[in-house]
Structures are given as structure tokens and as C-alpha cells.
Write a structure and sequence with these properties.
The complex is a heterodimer of chains A (261) and B (276).
Chain A lengths: L4 H17 L1 H25 L3 H29 L1 H5 L1 H7 L4 H31 L12 H28 L5 H10 L20 H11 L8 H33 L6
Helix pairs in contact in A: 1-6, 2-3, 2-6, 3-6, 3-7, 3-9, 6-7, 7-9, 7-10, 9-10
Chain B lengths: L2 H18 L1 H20 L7 H12 L5 H35 L3 H7 L2 H20 L2 H46 L5 H15 L11 H7 L4 H14 L6 H32 L2
Helix pairs in contact in B: 1-6, 2-4, 4-6, 4-7, 4-8, 4-10, 6-7, 6-11, 7-10, 7-11, 8-9, 10-11
The chains are: A mainly alpha (261), B mainly alpha (276).
């Protein structure tokens, strides 16, 4: 795997320009995420005997879920809508694959969009149930930053995986919905439901959610285990994302890519 | 083109779309179901199930058991899937027909826009309610056997009436977006409207527990009243409290219909003048 920093800088620049072009869509997605969050979390918080504990445990799961969902939508956007506009071909002619497209969007999606949506949802959720919004400021900022770092390879992994499945199977975008349901376990649904919570680390987004929980002291999996796993998962997810995206690229080179709604 | 022919054309198109997008329909049945059950049982992953059941019983003011809540969660998920489909289809289909596919020209050659749009708003929601809630009798039967089917028998007519009201409501938004305002991404309106309506309607908990700021938009639609009727019927049985939301839905239906009759007539004249 050849890591070229200049190439990455170019990709981030392209991603920033694309995000500026789609600022309206980002704002709409931002509002949409908060509203969907309220649909689910108003009843969850109201029905919880301890509302503060509920918010601090369930809300971080939304962050993990958002990272995975965003990457899947970004990958399918590249292989679906951009095919029609010719942007996918332009990227591919320059030797870029779905992984490169994901890298180009990672700083906007993970650092800017997911984080701002998370805190906006947190403020909305606390205000709705009459709690002080400042309780959602992370007690340990370091764990929140680690969560952001781990979120990057997780984002690349889920995006590449869905990119490959979208390209090589006939059901296309439905994969995103299937994955969204599976990914809830470990993120929105806390790992405490499993006999051994560590089983749910099989979902790559769980570690992101758990680190955000650790920032509030509500983590279910021991923080030492999470810290120990961090360098391993960063390497493993990045390498797997690279391999899967190469496989996806080879598939497209062999069979082509048709425009699918 | 007769009224019957328009209905047949709409029916034919929606059955074809249903077959084509079957996998998307499976998602439409599953996601609201998971979402709705999750709203009630997510707290149970952190606290005792009994504590959550008791808290919901206190909020509703009726002693409930676990099966009652599951039955309620599954039934209420139908409102969610119905709303998603009707709002999305009504707004986006009309826009696509005019701006992307260009099929409204053919419609104008065969009939007038007013008849076509009113048929869309009145007939299509019935088809969409059936398509979006196909899972409901099966799920209810699996949970409560015959009792589940009885619940479906009295819930389904309510879903049909509310679906038509929601179709007429969505048409009031679809017409300006399609004919009178230049907008690049109309799907943004539909995608924001859907959660805004659901969040403010008190879909899982009584609307009195929802902050006013969130329920303002929802109050313009029939959804909060529909949720209220369902909640009363499912959890407290038939009682006089049902009269107020039923009256409001009936009035809303009449108001949406009246505005739509005028609006579609105006749009028909407008389209013949400037073209579709």
C-alpha cells in the first residue's frame, strides 16, 4: 500500500470543493439527521427511568452509526449518482477508486458533519427533555478524539465494503439498509445486550461508539481493551478497506459500471 | 380519458413499481418496524424491562403488559411506513413527471390536470397504504394470533382514511414545488418533511410530552390526530376521547380537499397557458 501524502492532500482539496458545491445537501442532511434522531430519542429518553444515563449511553451510539451510514451513502453516491454525471469516470481515469473518493470526503463527513450533527442532536435531545445541554460536553476529550481517529478507518472500511457489494450484486443500494440494521447492534443498541459485550466488537463501528461512551464514562467494554485494540483496528480496517476497494475496482474494470437508480 | 381509465393507469403504474422496487418495499416494512420496537425497547437494554413497561403505563394512564406494548409498537410502525411512502411518492413523483420524465404532457393530451391530480391524491394513497402495510396483518397475527387480526381489522380503515388525508396534504406541498417554485432538489423538502411530521406527531408517546416547537409542523397534517386515535383504540379501547381527533381528521380532510380542488383547477389553467 503506497501512501502518498501529496495525493491525499489533493483528494482532501477535491473533497472540500465538492462539499462546497453540495453545501445545501449537507445542511439538509444535518437537519434531517437531527429530526430522525428526535423521532427515535424523544420516546427513548421519556421511557428511561434515568434520563441522563440514557442520553449519555444511547447518544454516543448514534455517532458510531452516523459514521458507518455516512460512508455507505458516500460510496453509493460515487457509484450511483456520479456515474450519471460522469464524475465516477473522471475519477477512475485519474486512477482513483471508491477508496480515494471516500478519502476525499473523510474530513468533511467525519470531522465536520458527523461531529457537528452529534453535538447538535445532543443539544436538541437535552433541551427536549429539559436537561442542561452542557452535560453532553465530553468529560474526557482525549477519548472523544481517539473516537474521531478510529472513526476514519471505520468510515473507509464500511464505504469500501458497500461499494464492492453495490457493484457486484444486483440488489445495489438495499445493502446499505441491510447494513444499517445490522450496525445498530453495538452502536445504538449498546453492547450490554450480548452475553459478552466484546462479541459486538465484530461490528467495526462499535469501537467508535464505545470510545465516545468512554468520553462520558458510560462505556460498556473496558477502556483498556479498547485502547489496546485501537492501533490494531486502525491498521486492520485501513488495509481491509484498501483490499476491498481494489477488488471493487477490478470488478468495474472487468464488467463495467451501469447507472442504477 | 375517463375517471376509470385514470384510476386503472395509476393502478397499473403502482403495481409495476411495486414489483420493480420490491426489495425497497421490504426495507420500508422492516425499518419502521425495527425503529418502532427500538423506541420502546432500547431503554430496556439499559434498565429493567418491567421499569420501562411501568413507566409507559404511567404515561398512558392504563396498566399494560409487554404484549400490549409490542402490539402497539408494531401497529404504530405502520403509520411510519405509510407516511414515508405517501409523502415521498406524492411530492417526488409529481416533480419527476413534470421536470424529469416529462409525462405530464401526455396526461394533458388525454385528460385535464385537475382530474389527474385529484385522482392521484385520492386513489394513490389507498394503493400506497396497502403496499406499505402489507406486513402488518402477518406481524400482528404472529404476536397475538386472532386478537392481532382483530386489531388489524379496525386499524386498517383508519390507516386508509388517514392515508388519503396525508395524500391530499402532500399534494398541497407537491403542487407549488412542481409548478410555481424553481427548486433544484425537491427531494430535500420531502426528506425533511417526513421526520418533521413523525417527530412532532407523538407517534410513540402522547403528544403532550412533545415540545411545542417540534409539533407545530406536525399539527398542519393529519398525523398527530391519527396517532391519538390509534393510541386510544389500542391501549384504552373505544371511548369518548376518540371523538375530538376523529372530528379534527374529518375537518382536515374536507379542508385539504377543498383547497386541492381550487389549487388543481388553477394549476390546470396555468399549465395549459405556459405549458408543462
Amino acid at each position: 500500500m503506497n501512501v502518498n501524502l501529496k495525493k491525499i492532500a489533493y483528494l482532501l482539496y477535491i473533497g472540500t470543493q465538492l462539499a462546497r458545491m453540495h453545501a445545501v445537501s449537507y445542511i439538509a442532511s444535518f437537519l434531517n439527521s437531527i429530526l430522525w434522531f428526535l423521532v427515535l430519542y424523544i420516546p427513548v429518553t421519556v421511557l428511561s427511568p434515568n434520563q441522563i444515563l440514557a442520553i449519555k449511553t444511547f447518544l454516543p451510539g448514534v455517532f458510531g452509526m452516523t459514521i458507518a451510514s455516512l460512508s455507505m451513502w458516500t460510496a453509493t453516491e460515487f457509484l450511483r449518482w456520479y456515474v450519471y454525471h460522469g464524475l465516477t469516470d473522471m475519477f477512475r481515469e485519474c486512477g482513483f477508486s471508491v477508496l480515494h473518493y471516500l478519502i476525499s470526503a473523510v474530513h468533511i463527513d467525519v470531522i465536520l458533519f458527523a461531529t457537528s450533527t452529534y453535538f447538535a442532536s445532543a443539544i436538541a435531545a437535552t433541551l427536549v427533555v429539559g436537561l442542561d445541554p452542557f452535560i453532553m460536553f465530553p468529560h474526557s476529550v482525549a477519548y472523544f478524539i481517539i473516537a474521531l481517529i478510529v472513526a476514519i478507518p471505520t468510515y473507509l472500511l464500511y464505504g469500501s465494503l458497500i461499494g464492492y457489494l453495490f457493484t457486484s450484486t444486483s440488489i445495489g443500494g438495499v445493502w446499505t439498509n441491510i447494513f444499517q440494521m445490522i450496525i445498530t447492534f453495538g452502536t445504538i443498541v449498546p453492547p450490554s445486550i450480548a452475553p459478552d459485550p466484546r462479541i459486538l466488537l465484530i461490528n467495526p463501528a462499535t469501537i467508535v461508539a464505545e470510545f465516545v461512551r468512554a468520553a462520558y464514562g458510560t462505556n460498556i467494554i473496558d477502556v483498556n481493551t479498547l485502547t489496546l485494540l485501537t492501533p490494531i483496528v486502525i491498521l486492520l480496517y485501513s488495509l481491509t478497506a484498501y483490499l476491498i476497494s481494489n477488488k471493487c475496482e477490478k470488478y468495474i474494470a472487468k464488467y463495467g459500471l451501469k447507472y442504477r437508480v | 380519458m375517463t375517471f376509470r381509465s385514470i384510476i386503472l393507469a395509476i393502478l397499473y403504474r403502482d403495481i409495476a413499481l411495486f414489483r420493480r422496487w420490491f426489495s425497497e418495499y421490504v426495507v420500508l416494512w422492516t425499518l419502521p418496524l425495527v425503529f418502532s420496537i427500538g423506541a420502546f425497547f432500547l431503554p430496556a437494554t439499559l434498565f429493567e424491562v418491567e421499569a420501562v413497561v411501568s413507566r409507559f403505563s404511567n404515561i398512558i394512564g392504563v396498566e399494560l403488559d409487554l404484549v400490549d406494548i409490542i402490539l402497539y409498537a408494531v401497529t404504530i410502525s405502520a403509520i411510519m411506513s405509510m407516511t414515508l411512502l405517501i409523502v415521498d411518492e406524492t411530492i417526488n413523483t409529481l416533480y419527476q413527471e413534470r421536470k424529469l420524465v416529462g409525462s405530464l404532457q401526455m396526461v394533458l393530451e388525454a385528460t385535464n390536470l385537475r382530474t389527474y391530480l385529484l385522482c392521484q391524491a385520492l386513489i394513490r394513497p389507498v394503493i400506497l397504504v396497502i403496499a406499505s402495510t402489507m406486513y402488518l396483518p402477518i406481524a400482528l397475527f404472529l404476536i397475538a394470533k386472532v386478537k392481532g387480526l382483530i386489531v388489524f381489522a379496525y386499524v386498517f380503515p383508519l390507516l386508509l382514511i388517514s392515508g388519503v388525508a396525508l395524500g391530499l396534504y402532500s399534494l398541497l406541498i407537491a403542487i407549488p414545488i412542481t409548478f410555481y417554485v424553481e427548486i433544484d432538489r425537491p427531494w430535500i423538502i420531502a426528506s425533511l418533511l417526513m421526520p418533521a411530521l413523525l417527530a412532532g406527531s407523538g407517534i410513540h408517546i402522547p403528544i403532550r410530552l412533545i415540545p411545542l416547537g417540534i409539533k407545530l409542523i406536525a399539527y398542519t397534517s393529519p398525523l398527530p390526530y391519527e396517532c391519538e386515535i390509534l393510541r386510544i383504540m389500542l391501549l384504552r379501547g373505544l371511548n369518548p376521547d376518540i371523538l375530538l381527533p376523529t372530528t379534527v381528521i374529518t375537518i382536515a380532510l374536507a379542508v385539504y380537499m377543498s383547497i386541492n380542488v381550487w389549487f388543481t383547477m388553477k394549476t390546470d389553467r396555468y399549465s395549459r397557458k405556459i405549458g408543462v
